[in-house]
Give the backbone structure.
Amino acid sequence: MRSLLIKNPVVIGASWIGAYLVIILFPLLILLFYPPTPNEQRSFWLEFSVALGFIGLAMMAMQFALTARINRVEASYGIDLILQFHRYTSIVAFFFIIAHPVILFIDNPQTLQLLNFLQAPWRARAAVIATLALVLLIVTSIWRKQLNIPYEPWRTAHGIFAVIAVAFGLGHALGVSNYLGLFWKGVIWTGIAVAAFWLLIYVRLIKPWFMLKKPYLVETVVPQRGDVWNLVLRPRGHEGMRFQPGQFAWITLQISPFRMREHPFSIASSAEHPESIEFGIKAVGDFTNTIKDVKPGTKAYLDGPYGVFTTDRYENTAGFVFIAGGIGITPILSMLVTLAERNDERPLLLIYASKTWEDVTYREQLEALKDKLDLTIVHVLRKPPEDWSGETGYVDKELLQRYIPKRPATRNYFICAAPKMMDAVEVALHELGAPVTNVHMEHYNLV
């Protein structure tokens, strides 16, 4: 049974990677086995640029699948890893697509006249529109914060730019009949585009419709230390959402889920009680600063659960080490309270970094858990009070070495904090002998 638990996720994850590679390389396979009938001398660089264009277009179509929050795919990697993969592959696809006309212009300068938008054939105009949409998509995504673009308008524009880029890119490819002149080739590419747009319809229309059928009501909003608020929701007319401790969900509050104004938050409550779900939310932005003012009875909708940052995936481990910074304690609290309700007897260590003693979110609740669990808590304060005798500064290799087990490979490690802290802790754990497969991290800034 142990070998099955370990191997199955690896096999499933590898199969999704294989499927992705097959789809994006499929255009080249078609050209390899069914090359176009040459009606003129075509240079190597021309064919190479076309190949890059086809791969880039296929990768852009696949972006719709990566952002559709498909549960089976997400369960293999975690949605934070998938979104990072989405960002990087979008950039790679962008360079492939840009390289296509650049190489074409260098190899045959006469093709520069295709940039004359008013006089160029329609397939060239489609390529220009697709490229401009892709440029806008990349620029507004990478520099969204520098351009002060709010998240909701950006997300709407992001989807529009993606649809334009793929639709007009496909139109350009079909218009260049040298490569997709055969009817069945056009059908295959049209099928890829239709599948991509179907995923967009699923995300924007079908999934919100299902969410609308399972509403939640705000029961209360509970203030916590560190300018954090617990949003407590109860399902209305259904049994609630089954989740694993440490997972998160997207919340739509006060408005229809079709508005697509949702925000991801970690669940802070026990997985044993889906009839009441609590989210820990720190007031740091326009939306989160309004949580404290939400009235009981307010309607909410949930899309989830998501995430692989959970102790439930590692039932056979000898114990757990949790390392949190600030609001990163939220998913870890969910894991701890769930383990307590399950009467778990394994040794647990929590290393919790905060700015001050008063900023320690869930401080009293964590202390109470020590009576129910074999739990050791190490607080690390950057600005400790004068009478403080505990750890100070930052969580570094020396501090970890004082507390983690002498045989680090016997534990699984869960880290949730600011990116800089997580990177430093990850490196330190590896240097101390913790296997890569035993270290799990959660990024709570997904957008």
Q: What stands out?
A: Confidence is low (pLDDT under 50) at residues 1-7. The CA atoms of residues 287 and 443 lie 19 Å apart. The chain has three domains: 2-209, 216-306, 316-441. The two ends are 38 Å apart (CA to CA).
